[in-house]
Every structure is written in structure tokens, then in C-alpha cells.
Specification:
Blueprint (H helix, E strand, L loop, with lengths): L1 H17 L5 H13 L3 H17 L5 H15 L9 H18 L6 H32 L1
């Protein structure tokens, strides 16, 4: 589980630093937190936020702060909302991406990037959910 998380977050970090400004690390952290609900993801969010800031030459710690607060808010509302649904992922990734892009000072096409990131969030969520179901099925049949 931790290995899959590191691979997914590293791939998202690589894509976000080289190709796009869509917050792929935030989307990956959101999907991982919703599916696994493990506390080590706070540490991963902080560490990958630092790496993101260092590679993009931004103020160190801003992304880490946003990632940890966002993950905390997701876990805070798990009692009020059913967070393992596609609608929650769609809304949370849209609002999280919009907030992150505005917080980091991006000005170009913020709304379209937030919409695209919510669609990417749904794809990542379904990929992780299906891989988790397959892993449980393989382990139980072994």
C-alpha cells in the first residue's frame, strides 16, 4: 500500500513539475486518503509538498501546508459525508484544486484547470478503487 502510494505520488510530482500546472499531487493525495484513510499520508503530503516547492522554486512549505490542511479537512468531514463516493471526489478535487491554484498564485485558466483536475481525480479514484478490489480478491483467493 505504501509502495503504491509512493509510486503514484512520485509520478504525479514528476508530471506536475515538468508538464502541467494541474495539481496532480493534491489529486493523488486526496484519492489515496479517501481510499486508505491512513495517517502516513499526512507525512507523504508534507514531504511531497516540500519536493514540489523545491522543484518549482516556490516558497518552501506553502504546498506542504495546503496539502496537510486539505487532507485534515477531508478526514474531518468523513463523519458527515460519505467520502468514498465519486461525487465527493468530484467536488473535493474541484474545490481543492481551485483553492490550491489560487493559493499558489496561478492566474491563467484556473477554472478550466480545476474542472480538468476533478475529472482526473475521478479517473485516479476509480483506478485505485479497482486495484484495491483486485488486490483483496487475489489475496483472499491465495
Amino acid at each position: 500500500m505504501k509502495f503504491l502510494s509512493i509510486i503514484l505520488l512520485s509520478f504525479a510530482l514528476l508530471l506536475e513539475t515538468t508538464l502541467t500546472t494541474i495539481p496532480l499531487v493534491l489529486i493523488s493525495l486526496l484519492c489515496l486518503m479517501v481510499i486508505y484513510r491512513e495517517n502516513f499520508l499526512f507525512l507523504f503530503g508534507f514531504a511531497f509538498g516540500l519536493f514540489l516547492d523545491l522543484t518549482l522554486f516556490k516558497t518552501v512549505g506553502l504546498s506542504s501546508l495546503f496539502f496537510t490542511v486539505f487532507l485534515f479537512l477531508v478526514l474531518l468531514y468523513q463523519k458527515k459525508f460519505e467520502i468514498k463516493t465519486a461525487s465527493f471526489i468530484l467536488i473535493a478535487s474541484f474545490l481543492g484544486s481551485l483553492g490550491f491554484l489560487l493559493f499558489m498564485g496561478y492566474n491563467n485558466n484556473v477554472l478550466s484547470q480545476a474542472i480538468l483536475s476533478s475529472i482526473i481525480g475521478l479517473v485516479v479514484f476509480y483506478f485505485l478503487k479497482n486495484s484495491l478490489i483486485k488486490n483483496k480478491f487475489l489475496i483472499s483467493n491465495f
